[in-house]
Amino acid sequence: MDAIRSFIALELTPEIKSTALKLSDRLRKAGAEVRWVEDEQMHITLNFLGDVPSVAIPAVCEAMARAAGAMPAFDMVVRGAGAFPRNDRPRTIWLGVEEGSEELIELQRAVGMELDKIGIYTDRKKFRPHITLGRVRGGKSMEALAELLEANADFSAAAMQVAEIVMISSFLERRGPIYDVMGRADLGEE
């Protein structure tokens, strides 16, 4: 049985991707060893699924559609730089979600519950809506990076309406992951 590495996500508008790249460019000046995310790969992961049997993909898309359809579309504003686990010990560098964060948490939870019903179990870590900008690969220039993260904590970004979520497959290549949309679900379409 073939399995496909996949996740449920929110695609971003070109304006938000452009804004995220501006923030990445600012943070690159620290000179830290970071693998920066390319704009075509930027998204907000709602539920990481891991390896899903290919025969289960239609059921996953139906579960995603049930959860999305039960929730109205909403506005989202991205704003502020930060890092997990902390700015002074960064592993993952992100652009945060200000407005719409509670709705994204509710949507992520609803999708997870629908997936549980069909036997697809998702990551149980506390969900913190964000756009991953990069992943730290080494310890070089960490202090400079932490300072730039603090200086951009209120980085003003862009807004978009959240009206659709997607199921994405991820194929890992040497140059980075290759994403392919396998299904779409509109919010408020139950």
From TrEMBL:
<feature type="short sequence motif" description="HXTX 1">
    <location>
        <begin position="43"/>
        <end position="46"/>
    </location>
</feature>
<dbReference type="Pfam" id="PF02834">
    <property type="entry name" value="LigT_PEase"/>
</dbReference>
<dbReference type="InterPro" id="IPR009097">
    <property type="entry name" value="Cyclic_Pdiesterase"/>
</dbReference>
<feature type="active site" description="Proton acceptor">
    <location>
        <position position="130"/>
    </location>
</feature>
<protein>
    <recommendedName>
        <fullName>RNA 2',3'-cyclic phosphodiesterase</fullName>
        <ecNumber>3.1.4.58</ecNumber>
    </recommendedName>
</protein>
<keyword id="KW-0378">Hydrolase</keyword>
<dbReference type="InterPro" id="IPR004175">
    <property type="entry name" value="RNA_CPDase"/>
</dbReference>
<feature type="domain" description="Phosphoesterase HXTX">
    <location>
        <begin position="11"/>
        <end position="94"/>
    </location>
</feature>
<dbReference type="GO" id="GO:0016874">
    <property type="term" value="F:ligase activity"/>
</dbReference>
<feature type="active site" description="Proton donor">
    <location>
        <position position="43"/>
    </location>
</feature>
<dbReference type="GO" id="GO:0004113">
    <property type="term" value="F:2',3'-cyclic-nucleotide 3'-phosphodiesterase activity"/>
</dbReference>
<feature type="domain" description="Phosphoesterase HXTX">
    <location>
        <begin position="96"/>
        <end position="179"/>
    </location>
</feature>
<dbReference type="GO" id="GO:0008664">
    <property type="term" value="F:RNA 2',3'-cyclic 3'-phosphodiesterase activity"/>
</dbReference>
<comment type="similarity">
    <text>Belongs to the 2H phosphoesterase superfamily. ThpR family.</text>
</comment>
<keyword id="KW-0436">Ligase</keyword>
<feature type="short sequence motif" description="HXTX 2">
    <location>
        <begin position="130"/>
        <end position="133"/>
    </location>
</feature>
<dbReference type="InterPro" id="IPR014051">
    <property type="entry name" value="Phosphoesterase_HXTX"/>
</dbReference>
<comment type="function">
    <text>Hydrolyzes RNA 2',3'-cyclic phosphodiester to an RNA 2'-phosphomonoester.</text>
</comment>
